[in-house]
Amino acid sequence: MLATSAIAIFLIAWSAIFLIDYVLRVAQFEPYLHLCHRYGIEVSPFQLRFYVTSPPKETILLNEKADILDDEKKSGSDLFFEESRRSKCRNLLVRVWFACGVLASIICLFGMTAYMSHLLLKDVGQWVTTTRPKTQAYRGMEYRSMHEVLTSISPREVKTTTEQMQNPVIVESAEYDMIEDGQKSSSRGLVPIIPGFNLPWSHIPIFMTVLVVAAVFHELGHAWAAISNGVTVNGFGIFILAVYPGAFTDIEPVTLKRASAFRRLQIFGAGIWHNLLLALLALTVFHLTPIILSPILTQGNGVSVKAIDARSGLSNPKTGLVSGDIVKSIDECDVETVADWWRCIRASKNMHNGRCVDKEAVEAATAFNHRTEADEILCCDEFNVTTAHVCFEREEKVPKGVETQTRAPQLNALLGLEGHDDTPYGAAGTGQVEDKTITKYSCLHARHVVEQAVCNVSEPCKKEEADREKVCVYPALHNGTRLVKIELGNRAKPILFVGQLNEMLQMVSISPWTPRFSFVQISWLEHFELAVKYMFTLSLALGLFNAMPVYALDGQFIVRTLLKSSGFSVKRRELIQYIVLTFGTAVLILNVLIGFIKLVIN
C-alpha cells in the first residue's frame, strides 16, 4: 500500500470517528450518552479513550464474606485489614516480589540512560566523522577514512552452505519486517515502528493486539502494587493515540502521597517489572513452541511449505506449490524431514535419470524438427498438443548410411550438390556397415512419462514377457535444468517442476512441522511465533523505555521518589531532578530522531 493511501485512510477513519461522536452528542442520543458515561468514552482529535471507575467502597465491603465492623468501613481501612488477614507466607512473597521490582526498575533506569547515551554519542561521532572536511595528505596522497577503506574492499565470494540455506529469504513483497530486518541491520539503535513502512500491513492485527496486552499488563502491575500497599485505585482505562494503543491506571494521589518512599517505588516500578517478566515469559514460550503445539503438529511426516518466492516458477497456485502444501517425496526419494528435503534435491540435481516408456508410443511421437532455446529443446511445434507436453530425447543406434534419414530425400542429393554413389537411397550397401548412435526427440505428455519406471545408463529398461518393449527417454533439458516430480500429501496429483533445482533450495521456505489434522493450518505456527516475537520485543521495549528518566514516564516518578529520600534540600532536589529529567528526555528524543533519519536513508 502506498504511503499516500495509508495517510488518506488514517485521516478518513479518524474524521469519521470524530464526526460520529460529535453528531450523537449534539443530537442527545441517550443510548450513546449512557454508554459514554458508563465506560468513560472520550473522543478528541486523534485520541480515543475508555475509562472504567472502580465500584464504590461500600459495594466492595458488602460483598466481603468476612465480618467487618462498621467503624472500619467508615474509616476506609478495608484494604489494610484485608492484607492483614492474608497468611504471613503470602504477604512475604508479595513484598519480596515488588522489592525485586524496585531493584529491577532502578537498574533499568541507570542502565537504559547509559545505553541510550552511548548510542547517541556513537551516532553523533559517526556523523561528525563523515561530515568533517578532508585535508590533502602529505605528498599528494589521497586521504581516505577507515570507513571508506573498509567499504571499498571488494567482498569475497560467498559460498552458500547447507546451514545458511536452511532459512532462505523469501521475497514476497518489498515490505520491511521490523523484527527480522531490524535484527539483520548493520546499524544498531532505535527503530521507529511505522505501520505500512517498516511494519507490514499483514502484521498490524497481531501487533496491535500484542501492544494492548503489553500495555494492560504494565498498568495492571501498577494497580496490583498500589492495592497491595494500601493505595486507592480510582479506575483503569485504555486509549488509542493516532494508531498506537495504550493503557493507564488512575491512582488516588492523596493515599499515594501518604505512602512511604519504598512503597511508592514499588508502585512506580511495578509496571516495568511486570513488562520484563512478560518478555521473559514470551521468550520461554517461543523456545517451548514445539512442545506447546505438539498436540496439533508433528514432525517426521514430511515437510510443509511456508512460503514461495514470487519470482520462482513454483509460485503458481494452480501448477506449483502454495503455502501449506505437505511434500512427501521428490521423484522417487521419500521426504520425511528437512534433511531429507535437502538430500533429495541434491540427489535429483546430481543424477540424470530417465523414464521407461513404450517404444511404439515414443516412435509415434518422434519429431522431425526441433529448435533449441536457453535451457531446453523444443520439438512439439509440429504437433497439436497442450503445454503439458515436453520434448524428450533418446539415443538410437542406426546404420551409418541412414543416420540423416528424414521424411523426404536429402535436398543436397536431389540437387546434385554433393557426390553420391549408386547405392539406392536408404540402402545398407554391400559391405559391413558400422552403427552410430544418434539422438532423436519425441513430444510426450510429461505427467504420463514421470509416472513410469526410472532408468539410466547403469539401469536400462527391463523387458518382461507380458510387457511391450520399453525405451529410456530423458527430458531434453540442458544447463542444469531438471524435470522433477513432487508428491504432495494434501493433493492427489503430483506437481511437476521444470527449472533449476536451486530455486527449490533458495526460493522455497519449508517447515519440519506438518498438521496432525486436516483442519489445522501450518500458518498457525507462524502466527503464534510472530505473536510471541512481538510480545517479547514490545513488552521489553515498553518496560525499558518507561524506566528512563523522562517526563511523563515511570522513570520521572522513580527519580523524584529517590531524591525525596536522599536527604538533600528541596532546592537541590529540584535542581538535580530538573537536570536528570531534561537530560534523559533530550537523549530519548534525539535517539528517536536519529532512528527516523536512519530509517528514511536506509
Structure summary:
The protein has 602 residues and is α+β, with helices and mostly antiparallel strands. 46% of the residues lie in helices and 18% in strands. It has helices spanning 3-26, 30-39, 57-63, 70-75, 78-85, 88-131, 146-152, 162-165, 180-184, 204-228, 253-258, 261-287, 289-292, 338-350, 359-364, 411-415, 446-450, 502-506, 523-546, 554-564, 570-601; strands at 42-44, 47-53, 233-241, 244-251, 297-308, 326-330, 333-334, 354-358, 366-367, 371-372, 377-378, 389-399, 435-445, 454-455, 470-475, 481-488, 495-500, 508-515.
Describe this structure as you would to a colleague.
It is found in: Endomembrane system. It is an enzyme of class 3 (hydrolase). Its EC number is 3.4.24.85. The protein is an alpha+beta fold and 602 residues long. It is 46% helix and 18% strand. The protein contains 21 helices and 18 strands. The protein has helices spanning 3-26, 30-39, 57-63, 70-75, 78-85, 88-131, 146-152, 162-165, 180-184, 204-228, 253-258, 261-287, 289-292, 338-350, 359-364, 411-415, 446-450, 502-506, 523-546, 554-564, 570-601, and strands spanning 42-44, 47-53, 233-241, 244-251, 297-308, 326-330, 333-334, 354-358, 366-367, 371-372, 377-378, 389-399, 435-445, 454-455, 470-475, 481-488, 495-500, 508-515. Strands 5, 6, 7, 16, 17 and 18 form a six-stranded antiparallel sheet that branches. A hairpin with a 4-residue loop joins strand 10 and strand 11 (377-378). The longest helix is centred in the N-terminal third of the chain and has 44 residues, at 88-131. The radius of gyration is 37 Å and the shape is elongated. The model is unreliable at 57-69, 72-77, 136-147, 149-179, 182-187, 403-415 and 417-430 (pLDDT under 50).
